[in-house]
């Protein structure tokens, strides 16, 4: 039901239950409404499509997005599920620590940082000048998965018995249980790699020193 001008009310309301907030109600109210619409548009769904998935009327969803209907907790839970997200993500507020300071290894030309939203993931930017080792005994194999994109130059990925060229602006993804190593081909290259938790551990030695086979995550 629309609220009267000047009426104070909690942003998320269901009966007498109020979800604790860390920002002014009006700011969070607006943020949640914009987020619902942005997620709907990103999925390519019309108001009717999302309303059907959330079991709401199209007019109710339109009023929610446009600020003409109070945000009820039970409706937000349903909308979060329909949008393939969680209630926590739907109502989370912006944080001040947007900028981070990567760990820089000048000796090996690399920088590394963890993903705040998922501390198990880490990102490594690395400049490489040496080709990968061709001796299978020097390749790694460990649980996990890696993703990488070549920012400049040409990288050479040894994956089992295969040698794969990865050019600038090309990306690769592979399970790290396959013996692998990466290096430069025909000159220096720069890569950006993403490691899941297991792959990150696999690329760390107990003493924290970088191996010769590739970047440490």
UniProtKB/TrEMBL annotation:
Pfam families: Cupin_2, HTH_3
Annotated HTH cro/C1-type domain residues: 36-90
Keyword Cytoplasm (UniProt): no
SUPFAM superfamilies linked to this entry: lambda repressor-like DNA-binding domains (SSF47413), RmlC-like cupins (SSF51182)
PROSITE patterns reported for this sequence: HTH_CROC1
UniProt-listed PANTHER family: HTH-TYPE TRANSCRIPTIONAL REGULATOR, METHYLPHOSPHONATE SYNTHASE
Domain of life: Bacteria
Cited InterPro entries: Cro/C1-type_HTH, Cupin_2, Lambda_DNA-bd_dom_sf, RmlC-like_jellyroll, RmlC_Cupin_sf, TransReg_Diox_bact_type
Name of the molecule in the record: Helix-turn-helix transcriptional regulator
Protein keywords: DNA-binding
């Amino acid at each position: 039901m629309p609220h009267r001008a000047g009426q104070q009310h909690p942003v998320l309301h269901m009966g007498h239950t109020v979800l604790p907030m860390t920002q002014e109600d009006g700011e969070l109210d607006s943020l949640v409404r914009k987020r619902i619409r942005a997620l709907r548009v990103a999925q390519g769904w019309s108001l009717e499509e999302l309303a059907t998935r959330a079991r709401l009327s199209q007019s109710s969803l339109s009023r929610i997005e446009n600020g003409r209907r109070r945000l009820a907790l039970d409706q937000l839970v349903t909308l979060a599920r329909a949008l393939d997200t969680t209630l926590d993500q739907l109502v989370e507020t912006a944080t001040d620590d947007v900028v981070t300071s990567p760990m820089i290894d000048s000796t090996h030309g690399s920088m590394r940082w963890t993903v705040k939203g998922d501390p198990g993931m880490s990102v490594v930017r690395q400049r490489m000048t040496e080709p990968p080792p061709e001796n299978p005994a020097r390749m790694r194999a460990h649980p996990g998965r890696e993703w990488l994109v070549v920012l400049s130059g040409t990288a050479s990925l040894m994956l089992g018995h295969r040698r794969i060229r990865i050019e600038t602006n090309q990306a690769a993804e592979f399970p790290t249980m396959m013996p692998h190593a990466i290096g430069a081909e025909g000159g220096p290259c720069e890569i950006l790699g993403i490691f899941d938790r297991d792959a990150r551990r696999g690329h760390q030695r107990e003493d924290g020193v970088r191996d010769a086979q590739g970047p440490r995550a």
